[in-house]
């Protein structure tokens, strides 16, 4: 099993340390089903083009299907000396059906073969991630809908700024994850390109039919340049970039859940099933899931940086450095899918303390902007109104009073424009519902946003149904 397919050129056996160093079987074995599917399509194309006979093609296809069953049952032995899953499958096929197996590699190279497998793998996994983002956004929308009336403090610079609806805050993440989904969908269009037929770098002299192979494998597009096909990894980099941005959003949500679940905030409680305790402090309930999601963001960033660094100095076309694309890719897929899955399950069970949130929205002089806006409606220039209310805030701090505790007489010391109607505008509900500008936190705006999101998600679920049925 250790004989190399390129052995004719060499006079020495590969050193065992080199075999171990160059082997990728430990991680690329997950590509086995794509390698077999791609090989079957390639084989059928070769028979159609009379490059091999139908009888030979039948033997090869039957042999490949048997190997697929063996791998699924765990009856397939992997050999590090054969480097990767592709050579392991080819070697076993030769053992099983004899010399005819050697014809399978006609008109292809491992360069285009590997790229085909990776693109097929990514096509499936990116589709899974797109579906997971629909599920996560559904959880956010449902949480927002169920807490429509909850008011919380909105922050800038982590300082209390203005009151907002909790549902409005959640819908901000819905928008972020919607853009993430759009990025992955767009990336999918560049992943779904068939490279098989590009061979090592220059194409092949055999009369192959790449269009037929693409149709068999469900590729809508074929690579336009053989050197680009085997020598580029930007479709992986684009995926990693989209994953990194998505993990930024996951990490920001995690940070808020960590803060909100602390004793200092007390806005939410993470369900027991998604938290852990301390080995020494009996009272502890730690937000481990959000902390791990926050930590895993750096892992995904590292994968993107690794691939960018690996590719930046490579001349065309293929270089063995490119074997290093798979571990960052696989790790990112696993990491992102895991984070999306756990949050889709956690969010519906999040316990929201509306009393603590609304209490927080009453602190920090958050009525100040509305007070300044009130003065503007009375004819005061905004900059003058801003300065005036700043002085009122300073006075309130000195008196240890909230702005709403000041009397009309107190306010008139700073501006004669204040009148009795000021107090009607300084309730939290008024401050929320008067912010009716497009995208603002007014309840009617948020209700519209949730309704629109539900309609969008319904269409997405319908779009995903064929994918689910196909996988089943």
Keywords, separated by commas or semicolons:
472 residues; mainly alpha; Fumarase C, Chain B, domain 1; Fumarase C, Chain A, domain 2; Ribonucleotide Reductase Protein R1, domain 1; 3 domains; two-stranded antiparallel ribbon; two-stranded parallel sheet; 19 helices; 4% strand
Explained architecture:
- The protein is 61% helix and 4% strand.
- By secondary structure, it is mainly alpha-helical.
- The longest helix is centred in the first third of the chain and has 37 residues, at 110-146.
- It has 3 domains: 7-106, Fumarase/aspartase (N-terminal domain) (Fumarase C, Chain B, domain 1), CATH 1.10.275; 111-193 and 224-360 and 450-471, Fumarase/aspartase (Central domain) (Fumarase C, Chain A, domain 2, Up-down Bundle), CATH 1.20.200; 368-425, Ribonucleotide Reductase Protein R1, domain 1 (Orthogonal Bundle), CATH 1.10.40.30.
- Helix 7 packs parallel to helix 19 and helix 11 (288-311) packs antiparallel against helix 12 (326-346).
- Helix 8 (210-217) links the parallel strand 3 and strand 4 (221-222).
- A two-stranded antiparallel sheet has the order 1-2. Strands 3-4 form a two-stranded parallel sheet. A two-stranded antiparallel ribbon has the order 5-6.
- The protein is built from 19 helices and 6 strands.
Please describe the topology of this protein.
Layout (H helix, E strand, L loop, with lengths): L15 H7 L2 H4 L3 H17 L5 H20 L11 H13 L12 H37 L4 E6 L2 E7 H26 L1 E2 L15 H8 L3 E2 L3 H6 L2 H27 L7 E2 L18 H24 L14 H21 L4 E2 L1 H8 L6 H10 L4 H18 L8 H5 L9 H4 L2 H6 L9 H29 L1
Parallel strand pairs: 3-4
Antiparallel strand pairs: 1-2, 5-6
